[in-house]
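Supplementary Data S3. Sequence and structure tokens for construct A.
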Amino acid sequence: MSDEDIIKKRLLIDGDGTGDDRRLNMLLKQFLKWMYSKNDSAENNQIIYDRLMAQLAQCQFASAKTERTGLMINEELENYQKLSQTIEKNIYSAKHEIEESKKELIIAKQIRKNKMEYDQLAKIIKQQPDRKETQKQIEILQKELTELTEKKLKLERKFEKRQKDFSVLMYAIRELETQLADDSSSEDEDRKSDDAEVVIGSPINVGKAAVNAVIEGLSDDEMEAGSQSGKGRHRRFLEREIKQDLDIKDDYDNKSTKESLSVDEDAILELSIDKDEQDVKMEIDMAATKALRTLLQELRFANPCACIKDSLAAQYILAQYKKFCTTDQQLCKARDEALFLGQTYLTYLSSLRKYNELHKEYRGKGERSVKETADMVGFKLPTDPE
């Protein structure tokens, strides 16, 4: 049997109830019984009265207790309400703190991530050189770049100048080839002298005579210049180049004039400014040596009977060659002087040959003097330097 069944059974048996209700019901029954009783003695009434007063006191005590219990319950309810409000406030503040803590946690995570990235970047930056040193290196590189740009511009200007000089030289060579072709086709009364002149003026014999003249006439001076400038070891290479150039000239005789001129210009304008400075300098020196050899060949061809060492022009050319080979500071000036002298001398030789041809052609055919012939062809007669 459960507790609920026991309580129900007791309530059914006890009709007066339990607790305070039963006490009040018993007090009321005894009071009514005492009031309607008639034959009770005074002692018995006193006893009943005392019982009634005791039960009444118990009821009053129970009532006061119940009232105090109610007050206490109300106070407890108020306290619990206050406590509930306090707990709600604490819960709200705790939630607010949790939200703030979450935000702070996100910020802290971001700060930690930034610190880690900062450490990694700091390690990478530490591996790199100092900013001041890098700035100094940048300034040095900028200066070098400026210097290289200036050098490039200078080389371009030199290249243009050399191109013009080579164009003039090619013009003189074309004039010389034309004159040699005219000489080979002309016939003179004296067949022996004409044959000798044709043999001397033909391109093949001129090339061979020029090579022999340069090798024989310049051996001592060239060796001396080579020992001073450190370029003597290129002699064989230069001789081979001269022979190759002469072979190329022999091939030009079998081609048209335009093709020969284009090949000559391409061969001469092969100078490159993109090479190293040492290679460019060496090529310039070798080109200057070839130009000087050509001038000396012209000297030998103009006066084959005389010694080339006794020629003032040859001595001046060799002196200029030694000068700009041994002194780097006077390179440009000496080269310009040598090229100007070469161009002037080539023009002089061309005009002299033309004058000699005209003089030979008109010799004995009229009464025109040498000066008149020179004036006719537009040539100024050279004066005696002494």
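Construct B, processed identically:
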Amino acid sequence: MSFQHTELAGVSWNNDATMINMKFFRVFLALLGGTHVLCAQPSASPTVKSTGGSSLASVVAGSKPLNKPDFDDIAPRNVTAIVGQTAELNCFVKHPGDRVVSWIRKRDLHILTSSIYAYTGDERFSVKHPETSDEWTLKIDYVQQRDAGVYECQVNTEPKLNLAFVLRVEESAPVPATTTPNAIHRTFNSAAQAKILGPEEVYVKKGSTISLTCTVNVQSTPPSSVSWHHGGAVVDFDSPRGGVSLETEKTESGTTSRLLVTQARLTDSGNYTCIPSNANPASVMVHVLNGEHPAAMQHGGSCGVTPTILLATFTLVISNLLR
């Protein structure tokens, strides 16, 4: 059905008892039946009357449909990053309204960020969202090989909107399998040295928190990454065990990396190594004890007793008993 605009003599429209000023409305003549159609603005009342006839009409004043959230697929969804550098996955959401944008790691369905907040113990993950912008960028500092995989940008509509991104992580330079800690030490200037605060051996009670603080005295060029190893494996902040987190702080005096392991278990014992990208690593031996030797326990992550001191104390006690 087609409509034509017309000015009709002897026909007026009333909004309840008030005549409508036709300057602000459009009247159309339907070619079939000569029906008078009033196109009203959204603020009009629902009932109007035409004086050219006896009929009443109901007008539903519609509003412009709201724009629904959608992805602006302008950024690459296959991203490659180098170990130790920062990886960014750029998600752009148009017309989000009051909807929440989240980032999900697909391999374990872990919610990494929701809105502007991070929901992971791994502080390398954050979200970048300039105010009033459409950008919701997942930022991964000091990216590691284990970070490779699929990530989803999600909007909590019904049904849910999601956009998948693939992150590939490459080594900047292959490290020979025969590389030893001594070879690593020879790679850097002797002045570039990491240091783990406290004694070389730390004792903690089972169920308490292991707190290890590593400082790097390279001020001119801060390390692009600081990783932690337990034994021969990289510390996994997202293992099923849980309770493992990392805090990294860069200041004018250097870089500080703090490893926290809550609810210490006997299996958490072993050698821990702090490895900056541009400095010699540092190591500490951690002993998780099942309640014995309370004097040897770590207090606040800054004190401990070495086996030498324990042996000397034990020898002194025995010699006193034999007198």
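The chain has a mean pLDDT of 73. Helices lie at 181-187, 307-322.
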